[in-house]
Hints:
By secondary structure, the chain is mainly α. The chain has four helices and no strands. Helix 2 runs antiparallel to helix 3 (40-49), helix 2 runs parallel beside helix 4 (51-62) and helix 3 (40-49) runs antiparallel to helix 4 (51-62). The model has no long low-confidence stretch (mean pLDDT 90). Pfam families: PLDc_N.
Amino acid sequence: MEELAKVPWAVIAPLIVVQLILMIVALVDLRKIHATNGPKILWVFIIIFANLIGSIAYFIVGRRQS
């Protein structure tokens, strides 16, 4: 428990919040969009398990531009 007290939560907490917001926005966008580069279920796993990088990768690579 002493290790958790040493963590700089003032720096980490905003990053966690930004990551969660980006993940939710990416998942909502994935649900609404009709065509993606690759299967949608694969993008769901990438967004959820790759955290911040997965969400950014979805917006850069995953969305098929019309």
